[in-house]
Structures are given as C-alpha cells and as structure tokens.
Amino acid sequence: MISIMTASPWQYFPLDELACKCGCGQMRMDTTFMARLVALRRQLGIALPLTSAYRCAKHNAAVSATGAAGPHTTGRSADVRVLGNDALRVIDLAQQLGFTGIGVMQRGVQAARFIHLDDLPNAPGRPRPWLWSY
Ligand SMILES: [Zn+2]
After folding, report:
1. Has residue 7 been placed in a domain?
2. CATH number at residue 46
3. Which residues are found with C-beta within 5 Å of the ion, ligand 1?
4. CA 62 to centroid of ligand 1, rounded, Å
5. How far does the centroid of ligand 1 lie from the alpha carbon of residue 85, in Å?
6. Domain region containing 93
C-alpha cells in the first residue's frame, strides 16, 4: 500500500477517516483488516464512521499510551463511532469476523463513544484475543 493517496480504495470508508490525523497524510491500512471492516459494515447495515484509523508513530505517541508502536501504527486498528445496541452488535460480529482486540469506550457524551477494533496476533504484552475498556 502506498502511503499517500487521493481517494480511499475501500467502500464506506473515506480517506479522511482512514488517514493519520496529524496532517502527515499517511494511510497504510492493512488489506486483510480492511476486508474485515468492510464485511462488518455490510453486515451491520448502518453507517460506521471511523474516529481514528491509521496513525503514524509520532502521532500515536502523542495521543495514546501505547506509544510509537501501538496498534494504530500497524494499519490493523480502527475506532468506530457506535453506541447502544449497535455497539453490542459490533462486539458480536467483530468476534465472528476475526477481530482479536476489542476496546470499549461507552461512557460520557454520545459523540465520544466508540469501539476499538484490531486483528493483531497474540504477542508479549499484547494478549489476543482481548477485551478492554477505556
Ligand atoms: Zn501522522
């Protein structure tokens, strides 16, 4: 995957949602992860806005406790804006589709609620499958 693109190659997920938010313009999403995300979107049948997807190492270190090598720097993570019953459906379908990391942020104002999804393998310090809350 080239790092700078002018349009998203994936239906439902525009480039501005997939690319790093620091302004660097990088977007290195993993094709297998994105196939899972497209399948999730199709099975849900509702809009699935991404609040965060690809992050460069510098940006991830600035916004996440996972530092410069966190899940979002792999192109195999995305945070989907979803809540309530739709969030429950995401958690259920995500497991069926092979996502291995599910992070739940469902408190506070509705606009800030999301579910983190990744499909990373099990690793020291990063067990998978795994569920956590923020
Ligand atoms: Zn960046």
Report:
1. no
2. 3.30.1380.10
3. 20, 22, 24, 56, 59
4. 10
5. 33
6. 15-133
Residue range 59-82, pLDDT digits in tens: 999 999 999 999 999 999 999 999
Residues 64 and 70: beta-carbon distance below 8 Å = yes
| pLDDT higher than threshold 60 for residue 134 | yes
Is residue 120 within 8 Å of 76, Cβ to Cβ?
yes
Distance of CA 32 to the CA centre of its chain: 13
Q: Is residue 62 part of a domain?
A: yes
77 Cα–ligand 1 center, Å: 15
Give a yes or no: residue 9 inside a domain.
no
Q: Does the pLDDT at position 120 exceed 80?
A: yes
Residue from 82, 86, 88, 22 nearest 55 by CA: 22
Extract the tokens encoding 84: 């309530």
Cβ atoms of residues 55 and 70 within 8 Å: yes
Please state whether beta strands 77-80 and 114-118 pair in parallel, antiparallel, or not at all (unpaired): antiparallel
Residue written as token pair 């600035």: 62
Domains of the chain: total: 1
**0.85 surpassed by pTM:** yes
Name 52's bridge partners.
Answer: 79
